[in-house]
Amino acid sequence: MTFFAFLLAAFDTRNDSDLAERLKRRESPAMEELYDRYGKLVYSVIFRIVKEAAVAEDLAQETFLRIWNRVQFFDHEKGAMGPWILAVARNRAIDYLRSVDGRMARKSSEFEGVMEHPSAFVNIERDILNSDRARLLREAFAKLTPNQRVVIEMAYYEGLSQSEMAERMKQPLGTVKTWVRTALKILRNELEEAVTT
Amino acid sequence: MSTPDDLRDLYELYALGVLEEPERRRIEEALQSGSAEAIERLRQAIENNAILTASAPLLEPPPGLRKRVLAGVGIEQWWWGWIGALAAAAAGLLVAAFYLGNQVSQRESELAEARSQAERLIAQSARTNAELARLRHVLSFLNAPETRLVTFGPKDPKPPRGRLLVNPASGVLLIASNLPPAPAGRIYEMWLIPKSGKPIAAGLFQSDEAGNAVHLREGAVSAGAAVAVTLEPEAGSAQPTSTPLFVAGL
Prior knowledge:
The complex is a heterodimer. Chain A has 2 domains: about 5-125, Orthogonal Bundle (Rna Polymerase Sigma Factor, Chain: A), CATH 1.10.1740; about 130-195, Arc Repressor Mutant, subunit A (Orthogonal Bundle), CATH 1.10.10.10. Helix content of chain A is about 70%, strand content about 0%. Chain A has helices spanning about 5-10, 15-25, 30-50, 55-70, 80-100, 110-115, 130-140, 145-160, 160-170, 175-195. Chain B is α+β, with helices and mostly antiparallel strands. Chain B is built from 6 helices and 8 strands, in the order ααααααββββββββ. Chain B is extended, with a radius of gyration of 27 Å.
C-alpha cells in the first residue's frame, strides 16, 4: 500500500469527531478503533525519532495512554484528532531522546501547555493529512538543499534548537538560522504558489 | 498588530517547542496580544508540522502493541473482567437457587456453596476496586505538571529498562519492562538512595507475565537521590540483600 493510499484509508476524518466523542464516553471499541486508525502512524513517527523498536513500542503505548487521559479536553466538534495525536507522539519521543542525551533542561513537555494540549488543535483542518497541501509540502521538502533538509529534520525528528543544530553541525549560529529560515520560507512559498496558480 | 517579518518563518519552530529566546517570547507576546495574524500563522504552522511529522516512513508495529495499548488503558483487564465476574456471579447464584428449591435435603450444603462463591466474588471485586483505585492514583500522578521523566537502561542490551517519573513533592513512578516475574518466594523491592545515608525501602512489587511492572512510591523525593530495584525475599527487606538489577539517578 502506498503512503498516500494508506493515509486515505487510515484518516477517515469524517469519523474522528464521532470517535473522540465515544472515547470521552469511555467506550472500549472506540479505543480499539483509535489504535487501528492511528497505531501504525504513531509507531512509525516514534520509531523515526528513537530508531529503536522496543523503545518505540513503549512510547507508543504512553502516547495512547496520554490521549485516553486527556481526550476529555478535546473539542470533538472543532478539533483535529490526527495532528493532536502526532504532536503527542512526537513529544514523547523527543522527551525520550532528551532524557538519553542529558538534555533534560529543556523538555518538550514544558511547552505542552500550548502545543500539546488538545485545545491547540481546534480549528485545524481536520483532513490536513490527506489534503493536497500535504502532498505539496512533501514535494517542496524534496526541493530543499541538503543543509536545509538536515536542519529541518533536526528540528522535527530530533527536537534540536537552532543553537544545538549549530553546535552539532559545527557551523556559525547565523548560518544555521539562515538555513532554517530559508527552508521554512521555501516550504511556505511553494504552498502559496500552488494555491494561487 | 501585524507579525514582524523576521518572525514570520519561525512559527513552525515555535509550535515544535524548539524556538529559543528572544524570538519565542516575541511570538508569545504577539499571540497574547490577540493578533489575528499571529493566531492564523500558528494555526498554519501546527498543520504544517503535522504534515511533516507524518512523512516518516510507515512501519508495521509489533503484533503485541495493540493488546498492550488496550491493556494499558485498562479496557481488557477491567471492563471485560467486570462483565465476566458479574455474569459468573449471576449464573452461580441462579444455579444455587434452582438447586436449593428442588433438593431440600441438600439445602445446607448448597447454601454453604453459594455463600462461598459469593465470598469469592466479593473478594475478587474488592481486588478489582483496589487495583482500579491504584491505577487512578497513578494516572493523577502522571498528569501532575511537576512530574518529570528519567529513562534508565535504554542502551543496555539486557533487561530491564524503562522510565521513572519523578515528582519531587509527591513521589516516584516506575514503569519497567523486560523484568521477568520474580521467582517463587521472591519479590522486587524498590529503594530510594539518598546522596548520603542508607537506602530507604520504597515498596514491593511484582511484574506481570509479559515482564511489565508499574510501581508508585508516594512521598517527597530528595534532590540528587537515585532509585534502585533488587530481588528480595517475599516479605521484603529493611535493607537490600542482593545486587541491584538497575540503579537510575534522578
